[in-house]
């Protein structure tokens, strides 16, 4: 079983379900779960660079959405990253790899590197780019990395805060979600298998998508360290540079990989596939909570010291936490106002009538 959906009916139940102490996360010996929160449960698990409405800053202006073919999509992502490096250097900010900097900064070397990536002569991104992509991702640029956390409450914070912002902007969401992904599942392709897959699919015109978990050094990235962060990355293989670009969400990818293990009648294709599936257990949990609980969830997480101050360890994070607490208090006040009759909230003393104020005679008891 690759994906399981679980709905919580309260904040307390939701926090209990996603707790790292929950036995479902320690049931399998070879399992390691990481977590991601999304403000809207119906959204697919799709990297930001693959979304249709996301703007990408490039040397020639803003590009919105994805490109029509795989080669152009790689050029778009790589070109944005090069501009990021050049902007960092102009303003005295270093990057993690001097050799990579010289490749990106030199026009001749950059053209050769771009052509090699666009022709699918190497995986994109290669390991050389992981740290740089993580920095770009955490400062708002769209990449093919998806943020995950080893702390489920951090994921819950992002789901609740995003859902609350949507409500404040007048956008509707029926529920928020926290996902738990087993990054040791055999359905995911680890980085060590990326290069062999490149050779395996180099002569095929059918796109082959893989997802894999990556960890990068946290020391230079305070946000990544505070959020106990890591990433899940998408890579495509095959002789597909001029084929139509069709991004595959992570959840759809996992379902497709699970189906590959089975025959048309639903049974496993082999004993090996059945053993792998049993070993993996549940690859992806999806825990949902009604959007109306978003502010209450933020309040509960704040009591656990999971808030903007702890997740964004800067003065800006402290200010954001102050505003969020005010919005939580306002939402609680509105909830109480909506849940009680007005007369109970505003107590106006009533003058008793003469009949009510007159002393009453005791009633006679009836005989048994």
How many domains? The number is 2
- The assigned structural class equals alpha+beta
Give the strand tally.
9
Strand content: 5-15%
Q: Describe the global form.
A: globular
If you average the pLDDT, what whole number results?
86
What's the SSE pattern? EHEEEHHHHEHEHEHEHHEHHHHH
Oligomeric state: single chain
Strand order of the largest sheet: 1-9-6-2
Report the radius of gyration as a whole number of Å.
27 Å
Distance between the termini: 71 Å
Helix percentage range: 40-55%
Contiguous helical run count: 15
Q: Give the low-confidence spans.
A: 340-368
Largest β-sheet summary: 4 strands, mixed
Give a short overview:
The chain is of the alpha+beta class and 368 residues long.
Element layout with pairings:
Elements: E1 3-7, H1 11-18, E2 33-38, E3 55-58, E4 61-64, H2 70-90, H3 98-105, H4 107-118, H5 130-138, E5 145-149, H6 152-168, E6 175-182, H7 194-200, E7 208-214, H8 222-226, E8 229-237, H9 250-260, H10 271-280, E9 284-290, H11 294-303, H12 308-311, H13 315-339, H14 342-345, H15 354-357
Parallel strand pairs: 1-9
Antiparallel strand pairs: 2-6, 3-4, 5-8, 6-9, 7-8
Descriptive overview:
The protein has helices spanning 11-18, 70-90, 98-105, 107-118, 130-138, 152-168, 194-200, 222-226, 250-260, 271-280, 294-303, 308-311, 315-339, 342-345, 354-357, and strands at 3-7, 33-38, 55-58, 61-64, 145-149, 175-182, 208-214, 229-237, 284-290. It has 368 residues and is α+β, with helices and mostly antiparallel strands. The protein folds into two domains: 1-45 and 148-185 and 249-341, no CATH class; 48-143 and 188-247, no CATH class.
